[in-house]
Amino acid sequence: MSKTDRQRWEAKYAAGNPNPGFVPDPLLVRHSALLDGKGWALDVACGVGQNALYLAKRGYRVVAVDGSLTGLRYCRAAAADAGLPVHPVAADLDRFVFPRDKSAVVIVFRFLDRDLFSELKKTVIPGGLIVYETFNVNRLRSSPQMTRSYLLEPGELAGMFTDFETIDTNDTPDNRSELSHWIGRRPRSGS
User: Fold this and answer.
1) pTM score, two decimals?
2) Which distant-in-sequence residues (6+ apart) come within 8 Å of 126 by Cβ?
3) Banded pLDDT at 191 (limits 50, 70, 90)
4) Which residues, listed in sequence order, are joined to residue 105 by a DSSP beta bridge?
5) What is the pLDDT of residues 36-94, one digit of tens each?
6) Contact at 8 Å (CB) between 184 and 167?
7) Which residues, other chains included, contact 2 with Cβ-Cβ below 8 Å and sequence gap of 6+?
């Protein structure tokens, strides 16, 4: 994460918690039947931690990683208030050491660093899940100032996980949404 990116997120969170109710992402809630609550979960670029808290409520022990100390303070306070096993970690994701074969679930929402895909795959245990959702190039229609390199091309997300079992995706060339998602499972053997 560049210094400019970190400053931008710190300024956003310093203005107040953008999700004071800690409402989890609808995609995660919609696929809650996949979340058995067993083991560790990793929330990458967790922001204020609403999705990490949701996973902890479902029974996971959660590591919530983000570069914003202010965002993590919101997460830490909410987890402590609720007595949930969420472990906030302040880290630059470009330097973060992802644990190998540790997480039953890995989630990423509204964050894109193409260099991390291979690390995410190695972090999830055989049979574990990855839930990924972020903006695609359709976002340029409503936010033309966005940097295109932070946006997925059509089919790019699904293409990153061809060695995993796809459970759900809208990442197709005809996707008109500004968000692309992919949910899948690491094969139990041969991976």
Assistant:
1) 0.93
2) 101, 186, 187, 188, 189, 191
3) very low
4) 41, 129
5) 999 999 999 999 999 999 999 999 999 999 999 999 999 999 999 999 999 999 999 98
6) yes
7) none
Rounded Cα–Cα distance for residues 32 and 151 (Å): 26
Residue 56 token pair: 């902890």
Q: What confidence score (pLDDT) does residue 10 get?
A: 83
Q: Which two tokens mark 80?
A: 């402590």
All domains of the chain in start order, with CATH: 3-124+135-150 (3.40.50.150)
Note the helical H segments in the chain.
3-14, 26-30, 50-57, 69-82, 117-123, 156-160
Q: How far apart are CA 68 and CA 124, in angstroms?
A: 24
**Sign of the Cα pseudo-torsion (11, 4, 52, 148, in order):** positive
User: Quick count: other Cβ atoms within 10 Å of Cβ 156?
Assistant: 16
